[in-house]
Amino acid sequence: MEAYTEAANKCIDSATTFLDYARLFVEAKRAYELWQKEIELSRVRKEISALKLVIPLLAEPAAACQTESLSSDSYASTSCNEPASEIRSERATSRYPRLPPTRPA
User: Fold this and answer.
1) Average pLDDT for residues 17-35, to the nearest whole number?
2) Strand, coil or helix: what is 28?
């Protein structure tokens, strides 16, 4: 009977130790999850701050995008709806006419 009692006591001690470690694991897991949420909250706050900076720039009147630099000494007047690449291609074709296609020799 003594061997049984000793084995039961070892089992109880092991179970108690296991539950203590399980409790510590749960506390550590909660702390880690909280830390992850704080990191995510910090990231979202930075994004909000960046958006607060950018939104007024995007909401400026259309007059701000009327003039665009094409080179160091030339400017083109554009509307905000017309991409500058189209203006560049139109100006390039008006300055330099297209050459006729070449024939193979």
Assistant:
1) 96
2) helix
